[in-house]
Amino acid sequence: MKVSPTTRAIRSALAVSATVLALAGSGAAFAGTCSVTGLNEVTCTGPFTDSVDATVPVINLVPDLTLVIDSGAVVTTDPGETGVSSTWGGDAVVINYGEIDTVNGDGIYMYSDETATVDNQGSIYTYVGAANVQALDVTAYYDATVSNSGDITAYAAPLSSYDATAVQVLS
């Protein structure tokens, strides 16, 4: 069967398009994962583009939860989004070994109706271009505790009117 030059050109273009699409990948972004690693403990690893707690299975968002962000975790949220939000209450604990980068959203926001503990051994970087934004914001009805052996940085543009507070702890 004889194929016209136009048909041959169209088939060739379609074949090239299909090859390019196949080699380009699926377009799906890699996502971080969270898994149960102990009684009332969840560990998260990998790249996150949303608040880490959004990936924790809902059944595990219970009072007295310990959330561990491991050294393989990199959290980079959209402007205005919080890197980690802990509001599950009880004796809540967040341990960070990873990197959290936010713009106009708290790096770690934690509120508990009992106690709140943050142990940061990783890095938290927060660009402050809005009101009420901190790199680390911890509030508890009873005790609020922060220990840090990592980097916590809150910064604003030069001559900005925004308060660049790295750590705020209220009890």
Work out the strand percent: 35-45%
Q: Low-confidence spans: pLDDT under 50, at least 5 residues?
A: 13-30
Q: What would the average pLDDT be, to the nearest integer?
A: 85
What is the alpha-carbon Rg in Å? 22 Å
Outline:
With 171 residues, the protein is mainly beta.
What does this structure look like?
The longest helix has 20 residues, at 5-24. The chain has a six-stranded mixed β-sheet with strand order 1-2-4-7-10-13, with no helix packed on it. It has a five-stranded parallel β-sheet with strand order 3-5-8-11-14, with no helix packed on it. The protein has one helix at residues 5-24, and strands at 33-38, 41-45, 47-48, 66-69, 74-76, 84-86, 91-96, 99-103, 108-112, 115-120, 123-127, 134-140, 144-148, 151-155, 165-170. It has one helix and 15 strands. It has 171 residues and is mostly beta strands. Mean pLDDT is 85; it is low at 13-30. It is globular.
Structural descriptors:
mainly beta, 43% strand, 1 helix, 171 residues, five-stranded parallel beta sheet
